[in-house]
Write a structure and sequence with these properties.
The chain is an alpha+beta fold and 488 residues long. The protein has 14 helices and 21 strands.
């Protein structure tokens, strides 16, 4: 009878049962189909708006499993998606009716404290990495939600509390083990398959399946000065105005972001503020506690805050502080812009839209970039937003599907109102599934170089269920081992 599955050409084929069993028996992991144990676990991802049903899921345990799965996809011309942590907002981890390569069982993190490196499997989460590295007082720049997958984060760039001091996650990538579109295992680094290494640092999953990442580590913590200062929304214009003056002159060890939302029922907030609109300053300083106290003092004493809970805490704890607000299983829709500065008009847009939030869980998040991120150029890697100083993420988040139109409409209206103050560029990891037209903007002047790289490493666009860089040459021959140096 076989398994009916979608193809790259837009059609459908039946994979004979004997070939399905052959694939199943060749994997150290599992091959699962609808109705089988682990199927729903594999297809369920962070964003509950994504409810897709692959025809087959290869749950890989090893790089060899990944190579086997990629060869199966290529030989049968299957529409294929790749899942790492399953956290991407667009839901590109899962494909309806196609073949899904699931890396989430691959979660090993091996730390070499002497060399200050970590070898991280592609299914690992930020929590896995932080837990292993902080045992040695080390860290690498990651994101802000511990359930995020390391693979998608790194391949799209990756930024968080450490990035002003230490750069992007992708800036700290030393090497990557990759399965290319031919199912061959390669290593990419500054000295091996250098063009591929350039593209992996920001170019997403367009050029192959990365099975492990070697990341540089740095001394961080284990205690940092971090926390929140909460203000009434009615004071937001004054607070953001002060932030605009304060943030650019701060040392790179400090990152200060702000969030505008309705107050959750946090224990340090007076009960009368629960559910009311607030502005929250979130700060993390990774130098000495004494220096951090001195540097943050003007920010903490400005205005009339409702609460100030900045203090020394374990870095691993700070890395999970936003997790309760970002749990899986909710509906999510994002819109994002980059900015060079904070215009008065942009402040007006933020305060206007924050007064009419469409849901208690929806928020406007504003991140501080700059510092070490800006010390590299756009030509140094595929990541092409080196001049951005700030980033806005309009984070629509809600539970009831009946509110889809209201929340999405609000997010799009805010995005459009903020557009005149933006650079026009965008962080590729924050693109939703309806923003294919912004992929070129995410890569700017690097886009044509990325197309050439796609032509070389994935000319048939096997890896297309992503923020896709389309090849222009459909050459069905894959570069030979002589042209691409395989892993020994």
């Amino acid at each position: 009878m076989g398994v009916s599955i979608h193809t790259l050409g837009g059609g459908e084929i039946a994979i004979p049962d004997d070939l399905v069993e052959q694939l199943r028996n060749s994997l150290r992991g599992q091959l699962v189909a609808p109705g089988e144990p682990a199927y729903d676990e594999a297809r369920t991802i962070w964003n509950a708006m994504i409810d897709r049903r692959p025809a087959l899921v290869a749950r890989c345990l090893t790089a060899s499993d990944v190579a086997t799965a990629v060869r199966f996809a290529r030989e049968n011309s299957l529409l294929t998606s790749v899942r790492g942590g399953g956290h991407n907002i667009a839901g590109n981890a899962v494909v309806n009716g196609g073949f899904m390569i699931d890396l989430s069982p691959m979660r090993s993190v091996q730390v070499d404290p002497a060399r200050r490196t970590a070898r991280v499997d592609a299914g690992a989460t930020l929590a896995d990495v932080d837990r292993a590295t902080q045992e040695h007082g080390l860290a690498t720049p990651l994101g802000i939600n511990s359930t995020t997958g390391i693979a998608g984060l790194t391949l799209g760039g990756g930024f968080g509390w450490l990035s002003r001091r230490l750069g992007l996650t992708s800036d700290n990538l030393l090497s990557a083990d990759v399965v290319n579109a031919a199912g061959e295992r390669l290593r990419a680094s500054a000295t091996e398959n250098e063009d591929l290494f350039w593209g992996l640092r920001g170019g997403g999953g367009n050029f192959g399946v990365v099975t492990s990442f070697e990341l540089a580590l740095h001394s961080v913590g284990p205690t940092v000065l971090a926390g929140l200062v909460v203000h009434p929304l009615e004071d937001a214009k004054d607070v953001i105005g002060f932030y605009r003056q304060f943030a650019p002159d701060t040392p790179e060890e400090l990152a200060v972001w702000f969030v505008m939302r309705k107050a959750p029922p946090l224990p340090f907030l007076p009960a009368e503020w629960h559910g009311r609109e607030i502005l929250v300053l979130a700060a993390c300083y990774t130098g000495t506690i004494a220096d951090g106290e001195r540097i943050l003092e003007p920010l903490r004493r400005f205005g009339h805050p409702i609460a100030d809970v900045i203090g020394p805490q374990p870095f691993t704890a700070w890395q999970t502080v936003l997790d309760p607000l970002l749990t899986p299983g909710m509906r999510n829709y994002w819109k994002s812009h980059d900015f060079l500065d904070i215009d008065d008009g942009l402040i007006d847009v933020f305060t206007d839209f924050a007064r009419r939030l469409p849901d208690d869980q929806t928020e406007i998040a504003f991140a501080q970039l700059g510092g070490a991120i800006n010390r590299l150029t756009n030509a140094d890697s595929a990541y092409a937003r080196r001049d951005a100083q700030y980033l806005m993420n309009v984070h629509g988040r809600w539970s009831d599907a009946a509110r889809d139109d209201a929340v999405i409409g609000w997010a799009r209206a805010l995005f459009n109102a903020a557009a005149p103050y933006s650079t026009g560029s965008v962080y590729v990891n924050f693109l939703t599934g309806d923003e294919e037209d912004r992929v070129r903007a995410a890569y700017g002047a690097n886009y044509e170089r990325l197309v050439a790289l796609k032509n070389r490493y994935d000319p048939t666009n096997l890896f297309r269920v992503n923020q896709n860089i389309r090849p222009t040459t459909y050459n069905y021959s894959i570069p030979s081992a002589g042209e691409i140096r395989p892993t020994v």
